[in-house]
TrEMBL record:
Lineage summary: Bacteria, Pseudomonadati, Pseudomonadota, Betaproteobacteria, Burkholderiales
Organism of this sequence: Comamonas suwonensis
Segments crossing the lipid bilayer: 12-32, 44-64, 76-94, 115-134, 154-175, 187-207
Gene Ontology MF annotations: amino acid transmembrane transporter activity
Keywords: Cell membrane, Membrane, Transmembrane, Transmembrane helix
Cell membrane among keywords: yes
Cell compartments where the protein resides: Cell membrane
Pfam families: LysE
Name of the protein this chain belongs to: LysE family transporter
GO cellular component, one term: plasma membrane
Membrane topology: Multi-pass membrane protein
Main localization, broad class: membrane
Keyword match Plastid: no
Amino acid sequence: MLAANFSSSWLAGFTVLASLIISIGAQNLYVLRQAVQGEHVRACVAWCVTSDVLLVVLGVAGMSQMLQSYPELSRYLTLGGAAFLLLYGLFALWRMYAAPDVNLQSPSGKAESRSLRNVLAVLVALTLLNPHVYLDTVLLAGSIGARQEGVDRWSYVLGAACASLSWFVLLAFAGRRMKHLFEHPRAWRIMDGVTALMMLSLAWWVAGSAMTMEV
């Protein structure tokens, strides 16, 4: 019976988080871009998995109840996320139209290298300033995990961790396989255009949802 409960809780955690993170979002696009460039990919995957697990644990531990109790805090987080998505989308739009090709691809054929600190700084911001992280990972996944009993809660968290690890490893692998498609600057411009469209659309949607929040 104990093993059955552990398995069902693990499967619940895996299924819930997988359904939430497998989408074309800001974080996933950024990780895919880094994987295509072959730049600090392991660190990006490590951060994404670690942040997912920590946020689920926070939700299970009670942060989901706190955000539900203080809707004004949720509204501020949402507005901050919308502002960041807007700025990132405008920057991607600038890269697509105005950035010289030398900034996208060096004469040696390799993408220009950035420091690990800079890469992770952007990824951390994309993760923690995205209101969907708190609405989905903390509120939804966390509240479901909080209903588990005893050791089953940790089984649920373990399942969520496995889902996150599986997805981001798969995303990194897919990015490396797509590297040959990005041998020319035009391909990077297309990716920047897709990124800009996604970020600006999300910013519009998120800002709209913040305006309709009851406080």
